[in-house]
Amino acid sequence: MHEKVRIGVIGASGYTGADLVRLAVRHPLIDIAVLTANSHAGKRMEAVFPHLAGLGLPDLITNEEADWSGIDAVFCGLPHATSQQVIAALPEHLKVIDMSADFRLRDPATYEKWYGGAHKALHLQAEAVYGLSEHYREAIRTARLVACPGCYPTAVLMLLLPLVKAGLIDAGDLVIDAKSGVSGAGRSLKQNILFCEAGEGLSPYAIASHRHAPEIEQEISLAAGREVIVNFTPHLIPMSRGELITCYARLAGGATAEDCRNALAERYSEEPFVHMAPEGINPATQYVRGSNNVMLGTYADRVPGRVILVSTLDNLVKGSAGQALQNFNLMLGFDETTGLEQVSLFP
Amino acid sequence: MHEKVRIGVIGASGYTGADLVRLAVRHPLIDIAVLTANSHAGKRMEAVFPHLAGLGLPDLITNEEADWSGIDAVFCGLPHATSQQVIAALPEHLKVIDMSADFRLRDPATYEKWYGGAHKALHLQAEAVYGLSEHYREAIRTARLVACPGCYPTAVLMLLLPLVKAGLIDAGDLVIDAKSGVSGAGRSLKQNILFCEAGEGLSPYAIASHRHAPEIEQEISLAAGREVIVNFTPHLIPMSRGELITCYARLAGGATAEDCRNALAERYSEEPFVHMAPEGINPATQYVRGSNNVMLGTYADRVPGRVILVSTLDNLVKGSAGQALQNFNLMLGFDETTGLEQVSLFP
Amino acid sequence: MHEKVRIGVIGASGYTGADLVRLAVRHPLIDIAVLTANSHAGKRMEAVFPHLAGLGLPDLITNEEADWSGIDAVFCGLPHATSQQVIAALPEHLKVIDMSADFRLRDPATYEKWYGGAHKALHLQAEAVYGLSEHYREAIRTARLVACPGCYPTAVLMLLLPLVKAGLIDAGDLVIDAKSGVSGAGRSLKQNILFCEAGEGLSPYAIASHRHAPEIEQEISLAAGREVIVNFTPHLIPMSRGELITCYARLAGGATAEDCRNALAERYSEEPFVHMAPEGINPATQYVRGSNNVMLGTYADRVPGRVILVSTLDNLVKGSAGQALQNFNLMLGFDETTGLEQVSLFP
Amino acid sequence: MHEKVRIGVIGASGYTGADLVRLAVRHPLIDIAVLTANSHAGKRMEAVFPHLAGLGLPDLITNEEADWSGIDAVFCGLPHATSQQVIAALPEHLKVIDMSADFRLRDPATYEKWYGGAHKALHLQAEAVYGLSEHYREAIRTARLVACPGCYPTAVLMLLLPLVKAGLIDAGDLVIDAKSGVSGAGRSLKQNILFCEAGEGLSPYAIASHRHAPEIEQEISLAAGREVIVNFTPHLIPMSRGELITCYARLAGGATAEDCRNALAERYSEEPFVHMAPEGINPATQYVRGSNNVMLGTYADRVPGRVILVSTLDNLVKGSAGQALQNFNLMLGFDETTGLEQVSLFP
Question: Distance (Å, rounded) from C-alpha C239 to C-alpha B203?
Fold first, then answer.
C-alpha cells in the first residue's frame, strides 16, 4: 500500500492546471498541497474555477510563496518560456512533470529558432525525458524531469510512431491535418477565441508555422532514422475540448491499410488508454472527451498506395493533464491508470 | 467490506442508460451483468455508444432474454409508460431504480391525466419511493422500488423545498423559468433536436403543458401543506448537457434573500453534492457538467418583497443517472457518494 | 426618386457598427463615406472584419480625422458614456442615430445612478427621441437625435407596451426572464465570453442590476401611467446572435391570453417587421436571425389569471443596427423597410 | 427592364429549397409561384420553415399538383436519384436548375457505380451543363438544364481548377481534407446529426467513399487532360453552415505558393463572388456565412515543393442555392449578382 504523495501545481489558473487538479483531487495517492498562480495569488481556487468548488483545495499562492519542503512532485502548467526558469529554481528533491513546451525539443538550436530566444535551463534539457508515456515508459519511470508532449504531437505520434518504426509508411511524405477545440488556445484573452469569433465557424491557423511541427518532426525523425519534414496544418474547431488528426501517408514496402491497422492494434493491445475505433465507427472527439483515451483508425485511400490515418484524444487530458498524471504514476511506481479511470463523457 | 453487487440496466441504449453505465462501470461495488435494449439487442455496447469502448461491458440483449437470477438490482432507463409493465414483470428479489416517469406521481388520476392513459402497475406505485435523495433518504434506504425524479423537478425541488418548508417563500406565487440542454430530449429521432434546428438558437417548449409540472406541484404541495399550482416554462438551449432553473418567488413572513441563502446553506451544509455558488459567482451549468452536483444561488430582487432563486445541475447525472446511483447506494447501504466522485468537467 | 445620403459610422469596429455596415452597404440610398474606430484607425475595414471584404468600404479613421462636411447622418456605435461627448461635438447639420445607451434615459438622475456618473450632454438628452420605431414613429421622423433602445428593452417593449396600454396585464407584476446570445456582450476581451467559458453552458448575469431594467421601467411606467418596478433577469446563452424574452404577467380586468394575442396581432397588423408566431410554432431566435423581425407569442398559464408572453429578435439587428437603420429611414423620409428586407438566415 | 420570371421550387422542404426561397423571395425579377414538397403538401411554408413567415409565399403542394404552364423556370431541391425522373417529366418549356447530384456526372457508368443504380434520364444527362458558374458561364447561359455542383466540389474546384489548368500544381498528387457544417447532411432524421451527437465534437465520415470524389475527379481530370484520382476526406464540424477545404498539393514546374496566389487572384479579379483572403487573414467559414462568396488562400508549405491551398464558402449558398440562383441569372440573361448581394452574416 502506497502512502499519499504531496504534490504542487505551478500555474494552476490555466485550463491545463485546472484539469490536472480535476484529476489529481480524485487520485487516491495524491494530496494536493500547493497551488500557485501568480496573477491570482490570494484567491480561493473556486473563485477562479467554480467547477472546482467544494473540493477542499488549498488557496492559490505565488510561486515564490510556495514551500516545497515536504512536497514530492510538482506539475508545471505555465506558458512556454516561463517554465524553464521556474523549474530550474525548484529544489532538487522534487520530481517535476512539465506540461509546457520548454523541455520538449532535444536540440537547443531548434528550441531557439521556434520559440524566439535562447533556452535558459539547458542543463535540465539534457536530463528531461520526453513524456509520451506509451513510448518512453522506461525512461519516464526513472526520470526526475518529464517534458510532457504537446497535445498535437501526442495525437500524431501515438498514431504514426509504430507505423514509421515498422516501415509501413513513408516518413518523408506525411500530410497532417489537425483539428482542435478552442481550449487548446488557453484561457488568456485573445479576440480569435471569443465565443462570437470562434463559434459556428472554422479556420486553419498557424499554417506552416505551428510550434508543434518541430516536435513532431523530432520524434518522427528519430523513429525513421533520418531527418524528415512534415506538413502540419492545424484548424480551430467550434468546440471546447478534443482534437482529431487526419494523416495522409504513402504506404511503404507494399504495406496496406490493413497492415497499418494490425500493427497499431498489436502495438497497443495491452495499453489501457489506446483503442482502435470499433468496427464500423470512425474516431470522433466525442468518444474520448474527458478521458485519457486515444482512439485510432486506419483506412485505405482510393489513391493507390496511400493510407488515411486518424487519431483522436482530449487535448486537456491525454493531450496534457492526463498524460502528465500518467507520467507521474510511472515516476512514482504507481499503477499507471490510477486516477485516470474516468470514462468519456458523452454526450 | 462490501461484496460487489450484480446489476442490470434496462434500456441501456438511451442517454440516461449510457450515463448510468458510464458511472456504474467505475463504481467499485458494482458488477454490470446485464444490459438490455430491445431495439439494439445483439450488438456490442460500443457499437451503440463508442465512448464506452474498451470497458468490457456485456453485449446488449432484449429484456426478455435477461436472466435476472443472480442479479441484485436493476436500473430502468426506458421511456415513460413502458417502464411500468416491464418493472411489474421483474422478479421480486430485485431492487429497482426507475429513471422513467412512471412511478413519480403519487396520484393515479394525475398520472392518467398527464400521461394519457391509466397506470398499469398501480400496486407498485403504492410502494414506490420518490427518489429525491437528499429529501427522502430514509425512505429510500428501505425501498424496493425507487422512482427517480425528473431532471427539472430535481433542480427545482432541491432549490425550493427547504424554502417552502421553512415558510420563507410563498408557494402559491412561483414562476419557474427552466432552461435545459438538448440531451434532455433523449436520443430518439425528432426534427427539433437536429443540430441545425436546435443549434445557435433558443426557444421555449411545452409551454404550460410540460409533464414535470405536476411532479413539481406534487412535492411543493406536500411541503406547503396545501395544493399549489406553479408556473413552469422550459426552454431548449443549444448545449448538450445541463439545466438551469431561475425561480421568481414572493418572500413570506418578512424573509429576505439572505434568509433564503442561509436556509439553503444550512439545510445542505452536510450534503456532499449540494453547494451554494461561491461568493460573487452565479450558478452556471458549466460548473456542474458531468458531476452529481447541484449549485444554488439566491438573489434579492429589485422588486420589493421578491427573491430570485437559481439552481443548476447536469440533467443526465444528478437529474437522472447520478441520482439513480445515489439512490442505489442508499438502498444497498453503501456510502452515498460511492462512484459519484467525478469532478465537473470544465471547460 | 431620392438621392443617396452620405453617412458616417462612429465606432465601426464593434459588432454593432459592423452589422450597421453590413446592412447600410446594401441600402440603395446610402453612401458610406466615413468609418471611424480610434483603436483601429488606419486599417482597412476588412482587416478588422474580414466578412466585409470586397465591399469597397472606406478605411477606418479616428473620430478626430473625420470630415463631417458633406455628410448627412451619422450612426454612433460607441460604448455608453463615451457617445455623449462625441455626439455633442458633432456639427449641428448631422442627423444622429445613437446605438449606445447614452440618450435612452429621460431622467438625468436615473442615468447618473445606473451609469455611475453625471451625463455630459444633458442639452442633447432633452431633444433625443427614444427610437423604438413602431412606438415613436412620428417623433422619430422629425428628430435630429434618436436614441435607439437597448436590445433587451426593444424585445420587451414590443411585447408589453400594447398590453400595458390596453390594460390587459398588470404592469406592477412583471417577471421578465431574458436570454441573449453572446454578441450582446460586445467584442471587447472579457473572460466570461471566451468560447470555452460561454460555450456548452448557461448562466444568469447582472441579476437585479442590469442597466436595461431602468430603461424598460421608464417606458412601461409611461405606458401604465404610474411608476413601476419590474423583475428583469438576463441569461447568457451559448449562441452568437439572438435574444428571447419570456415574460410572466398577471392578466388585468378579466383579460385572457387570447385577448393579449389579439391585441398584439391587431396592434402590429400593418407592421412589416413584427409577426405573431405561426399557429403551433413557438418563437425561436433561429427564426429571426439576421433579420429585422420580431416574433411574438402569447400563452395561457396554468396558473389562473396569468399569462406567458414571449418575444424574440436578433439583438444586433432589430435590437441594434437594424432598428437604427429603420429610424434613419424614418428620419430621412425613406420607406421604412429600405435596406432591411433580409430574410432570416436559417439554419 | 426585365419582367418578372415565374418560378417553381420542387422539394422546398429541405434546407437547400428553403435557402433558395430565402434568396429568391428578395430577387427583384422573380415571382415564386409554386412550391412543392410531397411530404408536406397542404401546409403553409411557414409551418415547415417558420423563419420564412410573413413573406406571402404560396402553400406547399405535391409535384403532381403543380401546374407548370405559365412557369418559366424551376429549381429542383430533391434528393439524388429522385430528381432525374421528376425532371424528365417536366414540360420542355421549363428551364431547370437542379441542385441534386443527378446530372453532375458526365459518365453514366460513373453515376451507376457511385449512386448504386442506372440513371433513368440519360437523354437529359447529355444536355445538362455543369453549373460551376465562374467556369462554365457561357454554356450555362444557353442551357436548358443546369446541374449545380455539389457543395464540396464547388469549394474544391473554385480553388484548384485555375491552378491545374495553369500547370502550377500536380493534379496527380492532391490531398483534399474537407470540413463541413451539419446542414450539408440535410434535414432528414439521422442519429449522427442530432445536436447531442454532432455537437461539441468532430469526426471524419465517408472516408474514401464520398460521392463528391468522382465529381471532383471528373472536373480535375478534364482540366488536367488526364484521368486523376484524388484523396477526398470530409469531416463533420459542429456548426450549421459553412465548409472549408484544405488542399495539400505538390507544386509543378517550379511554381511557388506565390505563383498560385497570383494565378487565383488574376483568374478571379473580375468575379464578384470570389475573393482572396485579406492580407494576414486566413479563410474562415465565418467570413462567408449566408453570402454567395468564396474566399481563397494559398500558403507555402514547409515541405519543399508543396503548397497548402484553402477555400471556404457557405454550403447552402455558393455551395447550393446561391449558385443555383447565379446560374438562373445567367440562363435568364440577368445581371449575375441579382438577388445575391447579401453581405456575410458575422458573428
Answer: 12
Helix, strand, coil percentages in chain A from 3-state DSSP, rounded to 5:
35, 20, 45
- Residues 6 or more apart whose CB falls under 8 angstroms from that of C222 comprise none
Burial of B205 (0-12, 13-18, 19+ CB in 10 A): middle
CA A28 to chain centre: 22
> What phi and psi, each to the nearest 5 degrees, are found at residue B210?
-80, 140
Q: How far apart are CA C258 and CA B288, in angstroms?
A: 40
Return left, alpha or beta for C62; rule: phi > 0 is left, psi -120 to 50 is alpha, else beta.
beta
Q: Do B278 and A51 touch (CB under 8 A)?
A: no
Chain C residues touching residue B246 (CB < 8 angstroms): 177, 204, 233, 235
B217 in helix, strand or coil?
helix
Whether the predicted model's global pTM rises above the 0.95 cut = yes
**Each residue's pLDDT tens digit in chain D (347 positions)?**
578 999 999 999 999 999 999 999 999 999 999 999 999 999 999 999 999 999 999 999 999 999 999 999 999 999 988 999 999 999 999 999 999 999 999 999 999 999 999 999 999 999 999 999 999 999 999 999 999 999 999 999 999 999 999 999 999 999 999 999 999 999 999 999 999 999 999 999 999 999 999 999 999 999 999 999 999 999 999 999 999 999 999 999 999 999 999 999 999 999 999 999 999 999 999 999 999 999 999 999 999 999 999 999 999 999 999 999 999 999 999 999 999 999 999 99
Give B256-286 as a DSSP string. Answer: -HHHHHHHHHHHTTT-TTEEEPPTT----GG
Query: The sheet that has A169-180: what strands, in order across it?
Result: A203-204, A231-236, A169-180, A243-251, A306-313, A294-300, A274-276
Q: Is B43 on the interface with A (CB under 8 A)?
A: no
Please state whether A7 falls in left (phi above 0), alpha (psi between -120 and 50) or beta.
Answer: beta
CA separation for the pair C261, A237 (Å, rounded)? 43
Contact: C187, A200; criterion CB under 8 Å: no
Q: Where are the alpha helices (DSSP H) in chain B?
A: 15-24, 45-48, 83-88, 108-115, 122-127, 137-141, 151-165, 195-198, 212-224, 257-267, 322-332
User: What residues contact A11, with CB distance under 8 A and at least 6 apart?
Assistant: A17, A36, A37, A76, A77, A78, A79, A83
Q: Could A246 and D204 be called an inter-chain contact, meaning their C-beta atoms sit closer than 8 Å?
A: yes
8 Å CB contact between D212 and D154: no
Half-sphere exposure of D7 (CA within 13 A, CB side): 32
- D284-314 burial, b at 16+ Cβ within 10 Å, e below that, comes to bbbbbbbbbbbbbbbbbbbbeebbbbbbbbb
Q: Residue D194 gets which letter from DSSP?
A: B
Q: What share of chain C is helix, strand, coil (3-state, %, to 5)?
A: 35, 20, 45
Find the closest chain D residue to C274 by CA distance.
D54
CA distance linking residue A29 with residue A2, whole number of Å: 7
Give the B window 149-188 contacts with A, CB below 8 Å.
183
Give the C-alpha separation, C272 to C90, whole Å: 33
Q: CB A240 to CB C182 under 8 A? A: no
The answer to whether residues D238 and D200 touch, using CB atoms and an 8 Å cutoff, is yes
Phi first, then psi, for residue B332 (nearest 5°) are: -95, -5
φ and ψ at C204, to 5 degrees? -80, 160
> Hey, is the C-beta of C270 within 8 angstroms of any chain D C-beta?
no
Alpha-carbon distance C308 to B177, whole Å?
A: 11
**pLDDT, tens only, B164-219:** 999 999 999 999 999 999 999 999 999 999 999 999 999 999 999 999 999 999 99
Let me know: does D242 contact A202? Beta carbons within 8 Å.
yes
Measure the CA angle with vertex B11, ends B9 and B16; round to 5°.
85
